[in-house]
Amino acid sequence: MRSSAIGEDGEHASFAGQYESILNVQGLEQLQSAIEQCVASLHSDRADAYQHDQHIAPATMCVVVQKMVDAAVAGVLFTVDPVSNRYDRLVIDAVAGLGEALVSGEATPDHYEFDESGTLCYSEVVNDSPLLADDQQQLLISQARAAAQQAGQPLDMEWAIDGAGQLYWVQARPITTLASDLREQDTVVPPQDIVTRCNIGEMMPGACCPLTLSVTGRGIEQGMQHMHVSYAGRPAITDDWTQVAISHGQMFINMTGGAVASASVMGIDVESQGQSLCGRVVPGLQGPPPRPLPIRLLGFARLLKYILGADKAINTFRTELDSFSINTSGDSAAVLQAINTALPVLHRAYWVHLQSSATSGFSGAVLHVMLARGPGDEADHESEAARLLAGAKDVESAVLVEQLDDIARGIAGLERDTAEAFCELSPAEALAWLGDKTTSDIANAFDAFLERHGHRGYRELCVRQPSWSQHPESLVSTLQASVKARLAGATDDVSPTAINLDELSRGLRWILPKAHNAIRRREATKSMLVKATHTLSEAYHVLGQRLVAKGVLKDSDQVFFFSHAELQSLTNDAHSEESDWANIADRRRMALAFQNQIEFEEICYGPPQPIDKRTRAHDEDGQIRGRAVSRGVAEGPARVAHSVEEASALEPGEILVAPITDVGWTPYFNLIAGLVTDIGSSVSHGAVIAREYGLPAIVNTREGTRRITTGDLIRLDADNGTVEVLQCSAGSAGTPSTTDNTTDSEARSNPR
Fold first, then answer.
1. Least confident range of 206-210, 525-529, 665-669
2. How far is Cα 267 from Cα 410, in angstroms, rounded to an integer?
3. Which of 64, 60, 355 is nearest to 230 (CA)?
């Protein structure tokens, strides 16, 4: 006897376990009683409370009479994995006997996960042999997918197989609270292409909202295509995705698309491309057959012209950016039209930034070649390059830190009670304190900082992420941490060792000033690029407000969960209703949380596949290796921070371990004793700032945040490019030198 209330098992509320279903009913008397129990459960205390919490109107009860299956094995099947929200996974749980033991939690099931081809990709089997044979697994998969296709939505299904091997489906309902498909915004990645998160993961750490994918992703694609038009023989910029790939809400660089330049430009090859992006040669990466020598020589000449033309391009764009604004008056259609007109400015910002980055990469490569001719091994050459590059002065991102340090130093220099009280204020209260003109020097310095750097911030190329000027409280939190560190005795004003050019070879004396200038140029154009992005971000915020006023969206943040092209359709749709567009945005916003939990290998062959941490093997080598970008050795407690919010817990003397750092992290660099990141290069943001502060730093460890736990005592040896866990913190899952820090369930491999 199965209760089946009107409105039960909808897309938004399942009512699972709220109403009664009764098994093994025999005879008319039991039938009568079971029906009454099912009907009465409509108004049970738990059902009434559930309806109240879910804001659902009272339902009407129906009762379904089903033949009882004498199950040898039974269970549930989800055509989409409701835990990871992966639409490319089908999940089966099976127990011996009736499925009631599974639903009630009395029995631990066999667990199976299958990919889109029906291949078993993960399983946990309770006993020595699985409950389901291979043919039974495939029968369940084929019939369930047929049912989901007919239903037009993912399904949560209950099934039973009797002693004779007959399969019965006893219930099917929509999977509730399911986010949108994590691959909804994916671009096509041919199976022969090689893509990487290296480099682009520094610019765009983590997953991005759909609007950022369509705006920033297209901007990067435009900039890289512009490079190839300039010197690599590409005929024109197109709307194709050839340089950037999108998968599961994250951006990748298509190395195969970039490798086409090697065919037309002398001096460009796939080995140097791998070194530039990933810090190593990428196995299997191949470019097309080289074109005739005259064409490649001409390509090299165009490359030099492209590099030497960077200063002129920067000055021209700086003039354009100084007068760049977006008129956000008018209705939603007018605002969107103004944004359409402004988008080419963002594309030109990417053209200029990538052109300046090319000069930095070119001069850095020449520097490494010169050092490689000298004594020592590769590690020595990397360390010496880091030391020499640290001499760059007036680097925009370093100036930003110095100015913020000046403000923190000024506050810490006040009466101690006053400085301590500032640290204890809420961010909003501290912001008001900074605006109090009674501390005029500090207030003026803070205003001047926001005037120059207010467009910067954490994840600053994401159009959804607020900048410091839009959300100054986030900046104030880091300022409070910096003041607190100074009051605790932390020292700053650490400078790298000065470089005596007279001690260098003639070649190094020639290239080093050019390399320093390239670093300054690269950081300056990064700031210009962020400013253009910030201006567009503010306009999109206004568009969101207009669409809320129009009744299309529930809140202005929902505007960021549509691509730019979709916003055109949404704004022009005269018959749009809030529920349709708002529900789409809500499900995509829910999907973003799942996408941010996904990790990928740094290099993917074909369409990227998320890493399954449960099957990841333990690394027997105790040392974590990476690329040393700022020399020195440090020992201290680790602080693992996956976001700038988590970094606010930093204490003076800790070693920061993060996936990657951008400008939003820089205020914390005066607290830390060293830096370890999962990805990065010698010219990434963390590397540049670490060198300015004289901090030992290692990037591109690939697994630092996975193998290190907050509180672990670690040794960071940036002279040799290694990190070692000396002592695990209390509660750490690992042991010294070999800690993996995954849970037991994550570490279990497929028993089959």
1. 665-669
2. 51
3. 355
Four-residue CA torsion sign, 415, 420, 423, 425: negative
Mind listing the pLDDT tens digit for each residue in 113-152? 999 999 999 998 988 899 999 999 999 999 999 999 999 9
Which of 620, 619, 719 lies closest to 674 in space, CA to CA?
719
The answer on pLDDT for 397 being more than 70 is: yes
Closest by CA to 325, choosing from 465, 534, 545, 470, is 534
Segment 258-275 mean pLDDT: 90
In this structure, are residues 447 and 416 in contact, taking their beta carbons and an 8 Å threshold?
no
Which own/partner contact pairs does 94-102 have at CB distance under 8 Å and 24+ positions apart? 94/131, 94/132, 95/131, 96/72, 96/131, 97/71, 97/72, 97/73, 98/23, 98/71, 98/74, 98/160, 99/71, 99/74, 99/75, 99/158, 99/159, 99/160, 99/170, 100/23, 102/74, 102/75, 102/76
Tell me which amino acid residue 199 is: N
CA distance 717 to 723: 6
DSSP 554: S
Please list, in sequence order, all residues whose beta carbon lies within 8 angstroms of the beta carbon of residue 639, skipping any fewer than 6 positions away.
Answer: 647, 649, 650, 651, 654, 655, 656, 657, 672, 710
Is residue 630 a contact partner of residue 305, using CB atoms and an 8 Å limit? no
Out of 210-219, 287-296, 365-374, 625-634, which region has the weakest mean confidence (pLDDT)? 365-374
Q: β-strand 722-727 against 713-717: which pairing, if any?
A: antiparallel
Cβ count near 577 (within 10 Å): 11
Q: Under a CB-based contact definition with an 8 Å cutoff, are residues 228 and 356 in contact? A: no
Q: How far is CA 355 from the centre of its chain?
A: 25
Alpha-carbon span 386 to 626, nearest angstrom: 14
Report CA-CA distances (Å) from 409 to 110, 403, 472.
Answer: 60, 10, 19
CB count, 10 Å around CB of 477?
19
The answer to whether 638 and 710 are in contact (CB under 8 A) is yes
Residue 582 confidence (pLDDT) above 80: yes
β-bridge pairing 655-658 and 674-677: parallel
Say what the pTM is.
0.81
| Burial (CB count <10 Å: 0-12, 13-18, 19+), residue 284 | exposed
Q: What is the 3-state secondary structure (H, E, C) of 598-610?
A: CCCCCEEECCCCC
Confidence (pLDDT) at 683: 59
Tell me the average pLDDT across 603-615.
89
pLDDT at 652 over 80: yes
Residues 705, 716: Cα–Cα separation, whole Å: 14
Q: Is the dihedral of CA 124, 126, 132, 133 positive or negative?
A: positive
Average pLDDT over every residue of 716-740: 70
How far is the C-alpha of 683 from the C-alpha of 674, rounded, in Å?
Answer: 17
Tokens of 324: 């760049």
What local confidence, expressed as pLDDT, does residue 80 receive? 95
Burial class of residue 302, CB neighbours in 10 A (0-12, 13-18, 19+): middle
A 10 A CB-CB count for 63 gives 19
318: Cα separation from own chain's centroid: 30
State the pLDDT at residue 746: 32
Distance CA 54, CA 692 (A): 54
Tokens of 432: 């008001």
Give the containing element (helix H, strand E) for 674.
Answer: strand 674-677
How far is the C-alpha of 250 from the C-alpha of 206, rounded, in Å? Answer: 6
For the cut 70, the answer to whether the pLDDT of residue 379 exceeds it is no
- Look-up of token digits 């400085």: 419
All residues at 6 or more sequence positions from 253 whose CB lies less than 8 Å from its CB, including other chains: 195, 196, 197, 198, 199, 200, 243, 244, 245, 277
Distances (CA, A) of 394 to 517, 572, 576, 680: 9, 47, 51, 22
